[in-house]
Amino acid sequence: QAVKKAVPVSSETRQLLEIAIQWAKATHGAFDPTVAPIVQLWGIGGEHPRIPADNELKKAIGLVDYRDIKISGDTVFLRRTGQGVDLGGIAKGYAADRVTAFLRSHGVASALIDLGGNVVAIGSKKDKTPWNIGIQNPGLPRGNALGFVSVTDRSVVTSGTYERFFEANGRRYHHILSPQTGAPAVSGLESVTVVSERSADGDALSTAFFVMGIQNATELLKDLPDIEAIFVRREKDRYRIEVTEGIYDRFTLLDKTAAVFRLKR
Ligand code: AMP
Ligand code: MG
Q1: Ligand 1: which atom is nearest the Cα of residue 179?
Q2: Which of 62, 155, 209, 256 is most buried as measured by Cβ atoms within 10 A of its Cβ?
Q3: pTM score, two decimals?
Q4: CA–CA dist 83, 81 (Å, integer)
Q5: How do residues 26-79 score in pLDDT, each as one tens digit?
Q6: CA of 207, closest atom in ligand 1
């Protein structure tokens, strides 16, 4: 509808769109909330996922551009026919922030909010020790952790290839798409975890870092002193885990076949 006329949205949707656009700018479009046309082509996570034809993808890529979202008052407008917004890469984080704010406003001093891949720790555990958040082993069923990070009052969000995917022609196609190629992002990463204060930020950035790859992400992290990250890659027969300096001492390795490195920004 928003390509025909400016449509009214709730204040939450407007706020969420503004945060999404801010991160789209900061990540030079690695995170882009207008990925909807390519997300729809692949249909990953839906009933009928498929590999789109090159010409379909080309057309869809041309429609992806966060600068075409126009917000005015409580209304949102998209410049071109065929464009659409998909907030799947940030909405869970925003929802977690709202839950956090709600609980805090009711005086809750200790809680763990888990929306699946998006975790927010309020305060510490009842015994005053930090919350331990597991980092999923990308190659094993849910619940198998490579290690854990110990946090108080922090959001911990992970984007990973193992979360949603389909298989065709012996290949795996996951749900984090490169707005440049229109295909699942190939950056050598299996997962990215972002530790931040606000979960919406961590959610957008974990998706963006995954698309950008570790080198570009490390560059961007220089401008983001309050953001910490954990990058997981496959290296021959083991996992290589890179942890930013600010949380390196808070990371505990569980899988002794994996190797951990301190990442300087
Ligand atoms: P996440 O699991 O938070 O990394 O988000 C992945 C979801 O965000 C996908 O299922 C899509 O709905 C959407 N998405 C995929 N690629 C991108 C991208 N490059 N920028 C923004 N959202 C994306
Ligand atoms: Mg995300």
Answers
A1: 19
A2: 209
A3: 0.97
A4: 6
A5: 999 999 999 999 999 998 878 899 999 999 999 999 999 999 999 999 999 999
A6: 4
Comparing CA positions, the residue from 163, 155, 162, 161 lying closest to residue 118 is: 155
Q: Which of 22, 44, 43 is nearest to 32 (CA)?
A: 22
H helices present in the chain, as ranges: 11-26, 36-42, 54-62, 91-105, 199-212, 214-221, 245-248
Q: Ligand 1: which residue has its CA nearest to atom 3?
A: 89
3-state secondary structure of 164: coil
Taking a C-beta distance cutoff of 8 angstroms, is the pair 199, 90 a contact? no
DSSP state string for 81-147:
TT-----TTTHHHHHHHHHHHHHHHTT--SEEEE-SSEEEEES--TTSPPEEEEEE-TTS-TT-EEE
In one-letter notation, the amino acid at residue 182 is: G
Cα angle for residues 219, 138, 98 (degrees, 5° grid):
70
* pLDDT tens per residue across span 147-194: 999 999 999 999 998 778 888 888 889 999 999 999 999 999 999 999
Distance CA 118, CA 211 (A): 18
